[in-house]
Amino acid sequence: MRSYILLLILLVSQTGIANNAYADAIDQILSGSTKADGAKLDKPIELEHSKQNDLQIKKRLTQIYSELDGLKELQVSVSNGVVTLKGNVDSKAAEQKALDFSRNIQGVIEVQNQLTLTHDVTKRLNTLQVTLKNSIEQLITETPIFLLALVVFCLFWAVGSWLSKQQSLFRKIAVNYFIADLLGKFVHLVFTLLGIVLALSLLDATALLGTILGAAGILGLAISFAVRDTVENFIASLLLSIRNPFEVNDAVDIEGFQGSVVRLTSRATILMSFDGNHVRIPNSTVFKAVITNYTRHPNRRFEFDLGIGYAENIGYAQELILHVLTDMQGILAEPKPQVIVNEIGNSNIVLRIYAWINQTEYDFLKVRSETIKKAKECLDQAQISVPNPTFDVNLTKAPVLYREPPATPPLTKESHGSITDVTADDSLKEQIILDNLEHADENLLVSDGQKEI
């Protein structure tokens, strides 16, 4: 049955006979209730009611509507506390306002809504014209206050910007340039927020600031979860720049990655491996890693093993090697070098040699290599045997025929070279310096910062 009624209304609307009342009828049909349905009485109904009360209600409502634009032409009738409103209104808001006023009058039991929503273009234009006129007048009136608020905000922003650039001031209280730059940005942010608060106070819109800060807090929390790794790396870079466990050109070992430090950025630590490759390690990993810094202390010890035969004089071999270590260029006298008996092997007695060098003046690998060579030559000259490991081989199959390699000229003693230059090799340092020249603004490490011991 409902579908037939709906179809009938649609057909009538196509012929041009329908008006706004049909729209209300459709709403009532679809919802299954009228506008009056579902009304709740929040006050008791009096047992006695007089016409005098109806006249007072009508008079009061008429006085109220006469003072409001858009409600002046409404017709009010009251019978036994039931108010009936008739007339034309320009908008839903005006209609709701008229109903609310009627329901709030004392003694009103029910309000019958017979108002008609009109779409008079002339009235709409007049209303729009009045609204625009009032808005323009209000804007003109509030322009001086708005300009004053803008001047206050710009003044605080400019002062904060100027203070943030005074790095010499922040450098006195900060441990390095990175912290000083962060302090400058924080001061700029504080002054900017203070300017916004004062400007909104002048505009009497401080409530807007709370809304903005609340939204910014929620947004910041969501972003922090989304970029958790980035935030973690940034905080780690901040702490690393304060602790300064290494500096540029330091040879380090971080989680098994070895190389010289190139720079520390806000996201990662850059190493240059000893074969010239860049190694990028996240700062969060570096901060939690075990770091071995080979360069922080200038003195560094190296060691190597050398075997002699069972029949040789161990003490004599130790004295010969110590004599070589004492005369070797680059080996420090203090701490003293040592030659100890490390173990008795399967085919020899293993001597372990310890020596210290100043790696700021001499190359670690060159000194170690030259020391091994001269120690071996010293034992050879003293005719102390350095035996090879001995193995027993049992052949159960026919041996493979061995073919002699082509003859080559033997190396004589005079043909052997000798490394005379054991000074530090700066080729890798030069590459790091050139690399940092291209990325000077990204490096958070400073040579004059407080070093972690």
TrEMBL record:
Sequence intervals crossing the membrane: 145-163, 175-200, 206-227
Gene Ontology terms, MF aspect: mechanosensitive monoatomic ion channel activity
UniProt keyword annotation of Cell inner membrane present: yes
Compartments (UniProt record): Cell inner membrane; Cell membrane
InterPro entries: BON_dom, LSM_dom_sf, MS_channel_C, MscS_archaea/bacteria_type, MscS_beta-dom_sf, MscS_channel_2nd, MscS_channel_C_sf, MscS_channel_CS
Keywords: Cell inner membrane, Cell membrane, Ion channel, Ion transport, Membrane, Signal, Transmembrane, Transmembrane helix, Transport
Topology of this chain in the membrane: Multi-pass membrane protein
Annotated signal sequence range: 1-18
Residue intervals of the BON domain: 53-119
UniProt family annotation: Belongs to the MscS (TC 1.A.23) family.
Subunit structure: Homoheptamer.
Its job: Mechanosensitive channel that participates in the regulation of osmotic pressure changes within the cell, opening in response to stretch forces in the membrane lipid bilayer, without the need for other proteins. Contributes to normal resistance to hypoosmotic shock. Forms an ion channel of 1.0 nanosiemens conductance with a slight preference for anions.
Protein name: Small-conductance mechanosensitive channel
